[in-house]
Write a structure and sequence with these properties.
Layout lengths: L1 H7 L10 H17 L15 E2 L11 E6 L5 E2 L9 H14 L4 E6 L5 H13 L5 E3 L2 E2 L3
Parallel strand pairs: 1-6, 2-4, 4-5
Antiparallel strand pairs: 2-3
Helix pairs in contact: 3-4
């Protein structure tokens, strides 16, 4: 009897439907894309960044305070909407340092900005307790 049953199913092979597995893979892909945090920062296009041959792209983005220094000497936040004085930069850096001891200032200075203005921003940041400065430059091929 067992032999007769075996002969009845000898020609049929199991069918494996792949569509539920493909659906699951796409759902997992969408889940991880939505769940992951992408850390980006805005770049003000009014600041013309200088070119440096030995520039390196910093890996760690989190913990940065972005300050833009414009050609006309104005100092603004990363969006370019809030204008800062040296005292305000000092207070901003002091508050950021309290929240995160690894805070760094990301300085995006226009290539035609005065050196004195850049130096004043760096000094204000140092008075606020943030001594680690990242200078924005464009990376070029050597």
């Amino acid at each position: 009897m067992a032999r007769a049953r075996k002969d009845n199913f000898a020609d049929s092979k199991p069918n494996v439907d792949m569509s539920p597995m493909i659906d699951l893979v796409f759902l997992l892909l969408i889940f991880f894309m939505v769940a992951s945090t992408m850390i980006t920062y805005q770049k003000d296009k009014r600041v013309t960044i200088p070119i440096a041959t030995d520039a390196k792209v910093p890996e760690l983005i989190e913990g940065r305070i972005i300050i833009n220094v414009y050609e006309d000497g104005k100092v603004r936040d990363e969006t370019g909407t809030i204008e800062y004085t040296a005292d305000q930069i000092e207070q901003l850096m002091a508050r950021a340092k309290e929240r995160n001891p690894n805070t760094r200032m990301h300085l995006r200075a226009d290539k035609n900005a005065s050196h004195k203005m850049v130096k004043d921003v760096i000094n204000a940041s140092a008075r606020g307790g943030v001594n680690n400065i990242i200078f924005s430059t464009y990376v070029t091929d050597k």
